[in-house]
Design goal:
By secondary structure, this protein is mainly alpha-helical. Helices cover 77% and strands 0% of the residues.
Amino acid sequence: MTRQHTRAYLFICTTTLLWGISFFWTNKLLINHVPVFFLVFTRISLAALILFIVGIITGKIQRIKSKKDVLWFLGLALMEPFFYFIGETYGVKLTASPTLSSVMIACIPVFGLIAGLTFYREKVSVGNIIGIFLAVPGMLVVVMGKGGFELGRVGNLPGTHLVPGILFLLMAVFSAVGHTVVLKRMTRSYNVFTVTFYQHALGAVYFILPLLLFDVRRMDSLQLMTKWNFWYPILMLSVFCSSIAFMMFTAAIKELGVTRANTFSAVIPIVTAFVGFALGIETINWIQALGILVVVTGLILSQLRSRRS
């Protein structure tokens, strides 16, 4: 394994860890009734501002080279964060089932395999394919280990609207895969820092309209933004889960490719479960432990490279 590959795996593992932990900071904001569009807009706007300041100081932000690249950057930000966050959030809300939503999102590696083969002709072995198709059912065992799908009224959610909810979740899945496909293309012409900055800056612009239409009129933004309970999780999400994590994910996509990098999506719910277990707010039974073992086995198989490659 080369030094570049070792660094890429370190980046993707760290990204997976940060995105797994991000659930707790996001959940803390939602519990305090922070509106969804305002939460996402503030998170990615602050991340874009941090990246801009660092980029100006270090000179790492490159100029966009052509009008065609502007369109590619617009498409990148449209898929993620815009479409992805909308699909995931409303998918959870309409199905009223975080479990079902986790299983749907875990399908990203399967579609990522198809995308990697279709757009970049990435080299995969039979073992890689078996590993990917092991990781998904393994993750399903983990999230269903507490008793299966829970469909119905959950907390303050409005109820179950299964079909539109699944459609929103599929939008999130395809947006995530499309995002990685475009991301790999952009890393051929621009450095990781530049891609991450423009993705967040343009993503923030996309969220302005839904923020004004749905959240601003229903919230006391001044009171909300004077509370440390708001700024602490927002800063954690902006600095670690957006700025740093997306830069590392972009670097990993560039080196590992769409197929291998997307496989790690199946591990994010497991990271969340382990963190919850460590904090004493989750339990892990033997069925879930077995599912985790299957996911890890599938993940290892999915990353093995054939001798010819």
